[in-house]
Amino acid sequence: MVEFEPKIIGFLCNWCSYAGADLAGVSRIQYPSNIRVVRVMCSGRIDPIIPLEVFMHGADGVIVLGCHPGDCHYSEGNLYEERKIKMLKKLLALTGFEPDRLRLEWVSASEGQRFAEVVTEFTEQIKKLGPSPLSGKKPDDRILENLQAATNAASDFRLRVLVGGERELTEKCNVYEEKIPQEEFDSLLEEVVKAEYVRHKIHLLTRAQPLSVRALAGAVEMKPADVLDQIVAMRRRNMIALDHVEGTTPFYKALEVK
Amino acid sequence: MDEKVGAVLVVGGGVAGIQASLDLADSGFKVYLLDESTSIGGTMAQLDKTFPTNDCSMCILAPKLVTAGRHPNIQLITHSELEKVKGKAGNFQITILKHPRLVNVEKCTGCGLCAQNCPTEVPNEFDQNMSMRKAIYVPFPQAVPLKYAIDIENCIKCRLCERICPAKAVDFDQQPETVKINVGSIILAPGFEGFDCHLKTEYGYGRFLNVVSSIEFERMMNASGPFGGKIVRPFDGKIPRKIAFIQCVGSRDAQLGNNYCSAACCMYAIKEAVIVKEHSSNPLDCTIFYMDMRCYGKEFDAYYERAQGEWGIEFVRSRVASVTEDPSTGNLFLHYVEIEEPKEEEFDMVVLSVGMQPPKNVEKLAENLGIKLNKYRFCQTDTFSPLETSKPGIFVCGAFGGPKDIPESVAQASGAASKAMCIIATERGKLIAEKEFPPERDVSQEEPRIGVFVCRCGINIGSVVNVPKVVDYAKTLPNVVYAEENLYTCSQDAQKLVAEKIRQHNLNRVVVASCTPRTHEPLFRETVQEAGLNPYLFEMANIRDQCSWVHMHEHEKATEKAKDLVASMVAKARLLKPLKKPTIEVTPVGLVIGGGIAGMTAALELAKQGFEVHLVEKKKELGGHLLTMHYLFEKDDNPQEKLQAITKAVMENDKIHVYTGAEVVDVYGFVGNFKTRIKRQSGKEKEIDHGIVIVATGAVEYEPTEYLYGKDPRIMTQHELEEQIAKGEFKAKTVVVIQCVGARNEERPNCSRICCGQAMKNALKIKQVSPKTEVYVLYKDIRTYGFKEDYYREAATKGVLFVNYDDERKPRVVDEDGKLKVTFWEPVIKEEVEIGPDVVVLSAATLPNPDNKRIAEMLKVPLTKDGFFLEAHMKLRPVDFATDGVFLCGMAHWPKFIDESISQACAAAARAATILSKKTLDAEGTVAHIDEDLCIGCGVCISICPYKAIAKDENGLAKVNEVLCKGCGTCAASCPERAIMMHQFTDEQLIAQGIAVLRRATHG
Q1: pTM confidence score
Q2: Which has the closest alpha carbon to B527: B496, B573, B572, B482?
Q3: Does the beta carbon of A56 lie under 8 angstroms from any beta carbon of chain B?
């Protein structure tokens, strides 16, 4: 058996990390060849959708590298990215796809050695995790569907507005000139990540065919009462509608969202 | 030969020289940037981190190096020296001696094959001789120009490099060359030389291996330094557990002749201590031995506080007498006296904080140019002309004018650029060339037709990656219609070939697989433009730095990876769209807010450069802070006479419109196109159009609430004392001066910078008018940095008594039946002392102008916690705001002396000129675009954008000002509605790049 050679996608910011990778090159520092670098201007450019899409297509690992806090060429793009990756890890944890396949690190332009070390270490970690359940010819359908639900949740307004506004809310002030304590925000985010993920999961399931609360509860591993709560919220947002009733059991069908 | 010349010679390619060059080149002047080294970069390139932001030095410098290297108006003349200067301001004739590099820079591609194979190892100066380089070398990997040079003194002339250089660039027949150029003005930025620690024999440098200089320590800390960033002891390679930093090595040392303070060492020592602790995984103790901690700059004291609290750095107030070594362990013993008690302490390692000295061969330079040096052999300047040498048309910036840190050097550099521009303002734009390209082909209706060019980079890529296989593979990729390999795609003939192939095969997208886009993308973009393509229809795959160089022993894997990287870029190229570079018209008019010395200087500089200026002052009279100043350190200068002359020049200049008793009430618009309403006290309003804003709103003196101030006329501030002395009303037998009143306390943790200087000035004046008066100065640290240290020494010599106090034992001032009593702790005799002065003088803090908040809101620029204006970057953009077209100078930025305010004001004018000198501003095409059908006006992007490039339009929807957008794309990644597209880095393109690589994936 040939040794597993993972495919890792690295998103590197132009000013620090890409420069650090260049320095590793100029200094001829050797590291595993598994990483494929995609250059962006700022790590803050990496929309949560991007790692999710790449994972769905079978990437074994995704690493986002940015400037150290304080070094960002665009002042704070890296700090915004930190929030996004935090959310993304929470979201991945719900899907059955290992969140450890995603990592954010800081590498400066003078840290060629560190770049090589970070890449080596991450490659080792991915090798230990083994091939992605979504790589190869037979991807795990359940996890693929879960990641699709996660992608849809990460595309949706509610989660994005929270993550996009996190630093404003927790570090600066909201409109009432209040700062939200970080712990409070984190627990709110946790809740929203869970809710949005489940809603998009339900949405995907009911897109294929109308389903009952009980059937959905089984599929998403939740109590029927909790599923019903989500359906109520989803109806408000025009994500789902009652399709038909069989006996005493209503069946729901997804509505196409814009 | 009396015609003026629109070119400037800049001597010295450190950060100051580079900044001056960039400002001049961006304002329409030709620049010759001369450096003795084979690369520009100077001392800053050697530093690890920079205070107080702990930015990685190379990270912030490298982009400037690259920009200077590529700027069409800047000609680098490296490895050369100034030989002769003739002529006068406006037209100098310069002779330069170019030393032979023995490498043809036109041909050298910087591949490094020569150095890899060169058999001769030489101590590497860039690493302070702690590592080795080859006899053919570049000083550091990010060198600009990235061209090798042969160190003729060490080369054994085996000619191996000549034989293996694939570009045939090595040329042993090169001879010294004399170059003659004509320039209108000259800027001197030759920097400084570190003090030679050997001369301080008592510290054992050169004898004890574990005693190192601070610049050696910087290299040791650096990740690309000799030890990869891990600090180890030179004696035995062990990791130190206890490091001592000794301050003032070669500074404040009359015995060695350097009485001045080197101004930056206290801060860099703290930085080094903090960083080394931060990096150390083992427990590490750092102790700094100092005389006075001089943390006088912007937020420096806050940094000092953090070093003590957060990082646990120890500070000991003592001049170390000597260092001895235990030869068996290499450990070092510091002998010193602390509060009159002799002490000895053992350390693993000692770092000497070396001072700054004038650059080598400074006498020759001065003689060549006919300029005067001061007594310390730095360039002679004056308070009111800090950037001017003794010879008209020749200007100075950076450490050559006196020891200073990076932000001050950068500000001076821009300031000197302004001075240089003023002389040749009429010649702007005459000597610069603009490149013209053929009209752009419209490819919007065409299917992508991609050409792939794979570079062998000599053997750099070709010897590891199987290039023909990569070419064959590229041909199989969708939309690729042409692929080939080149020996050097970047060589001039290959560039022509690429352009030919574009036309021949009707290519509309180009991918080059070679090295890094960070250095080569601009070059290739020009190539595709020459073939009539939009420059954004180009992409690079980096198969050298990310492939052949880092997987040297895995040829097959490297080839597979190269294929992937090409596939990834082709996938992106298919989705590329031609982008337009947005342009906006510029109103060539400036607005200066504040009519103090900074504001007036900025206005005059702009006017001399030929721009119209509106100068708005809130008070009825111009002059600001300077109106209250009656004498200076320098005995002959009368500040009021100077002020009158400057005010007159402002009033009489017909390009300057002065509004006194007036305020700015509204500012609309953005860079190039501001509209501002000014309201006079009479109530009359006026609206003006302008292209830039300079904020020079000054600062105010703190009104003390402590030490009975305001309750007794015998207790006064420094300003009030000065007034009294000037009026001849001063009379006292004993005076007590208390420093840091209202500063360096809990409410205002930072130092007000100028009060120590003020105290010296006034103490010396008292001794002059009344030599018998006893003067006590109670201080926390005396911060007479730079040459001001001379006045401290003079005051001490004249009998002024200095007594140190700390926060635990502050002095007390009481009124006992009409008699003033001051009680303070005398640390030397360890007793409370009580004296009865006739006058108590308080050195009151300098506070931000209370108007700052209102002005900051109007201009949408930030303030610091203290309430001063906050610049774009504390190190490298000291007079810019992050918002384009808005600048700051003078005490609006931080308390400062007159010469510093003038330097900054000139700097702000130079930075402003880079905008005002252009008819239109061109921005990058890689900007964010908001789809108005999707935007709901939630405002997330507006709060995120660091450049205020996004604002709500009349419909309440977000709109990007393309000229302000810098293309980071954080808004696009954060938009809740996914309504923002980041051109050239769209979601679609980035995902396609990732997926293209995975399509080929096979496991097991």
Answers
A1: 0.86
A2: B496
A3: no
In order, the DSSP letters of A149-194 are HHHHHHHSHHHHHHHHHHHHHHTS--TTS-PPPHHHHHHHHHHHHH
What's the pLDDT score for residue A136?
A: 85
Q: Tell me, yes or no, if B982 comes closer than 8 A to chain A by beta carbon.
A: yes
Task: Give the pair of three-digit tokens for residue B593.
Answer: 């807010």
ipTM: 0.96
Last residue of a domain, one of A93, A112, A129: A129
Domain presence at residue A179: yes
- CATH, residue A95: 3.40.50
Q: Which strand (E) or helix (H) includes residue B647?
A: helix B639-652
Residue A44: list chain B partners with CB under 8 A: 968-970, 973-974
In this structure, the number of other CB atoms found within 10 A of the CB of residue B747 comes to: 8
Asked if residue A68 is part of any domain, the answer here is yes
- Residue spans of chain A under pLDDT 70: 1, 173-177, 258
Which one of A109, A114, A160 has the shortest CB-CB distance to B974?
A: A160
A119 and A168 share a domain? no
Domain containing A109 equals 8-129
Would you call B56 and A18 a contact, using CB atoms and an 8 Å cutoff? Answer: no
Same domain, A164 and A237: yes
Q: Judge if A25 and A100 occupy the same domain.
A: yes
User: pLDDT value at position B1000?
Assistant: 57
The H or E element spanning position B995 is helix B987-999
What are the start-end ranges of the E strands in B276-428?
A: 285-290, 314-317, 320-325, 332-338, 341-347, 349-354, 356-357, 394-396
* Same domain (yes/no): A88, A196: no
CA separation for the pair B1004, B1000 (Å, rounded): 13
Looking up tokens 């010897």, which residue turns up? B463
Q: What is the pLDDT of residue A147?
A: 97
Does B132 touch chain A if contact means CB atoms closer than 8 Å? no
Q: Are residues A13 and A117 in the same domain?
A: yes
Cβ contact, residue pair B990, A30, below 8 Å: no
pLDDT for the residue numbered A175: 59
Among A50, A74, A165, beta carbon nearest to B946: A74
pLDDT of the residue at B320: 97
pLDDT of residue A94: 96
Claim to verify: residue A167 and residue A249 sit in the same structural domain? yes
pLDDT at B490: 82
Cβ atoms of A217 and A205 closer than 8 Å: no
Q: Tell me the helix, strand and coil percentages in chain B, rounded to 5.
A: 30, 25, 45
- In this structure, what token pair is assigned to residue B284? 């590490």
A142 inside domain: no
Chain A residues with beta carbon closer than 8 angstroms to that of B999: 57
In a domain, A205, yes or no: yes
Q: Select the residue of B59, B926, B969 nearest A15 (Cβ to Cβ).
A: B59
Residue numbers of chain B with a pLDDT score lower than 70: 1-2, 635-636, 1000-1004
H-assigned helices in chain A: 17-26, 49-56, 77-95, 112-129, 141-155, 157-170, 182-208, 213-220, 224-236
Total number of domains constituting chain A: 2
Per-residue burial over B198-226, b = 16 or more CB atoms within 10 Å of its CB, e = otherwise: eebeebbbeebbbbbbbbbbbbbbbbbbb
CATH of the domain at A221: 1.10.10.10
Nearest residue in A to B873, CA atom: A75
Q: Are residues A167 and A78 in the same domain?
A: no
My answer on whether A124 and A167 are in the same domain is no
Distance spanning both ends of chain B, measured CA to CA: 77
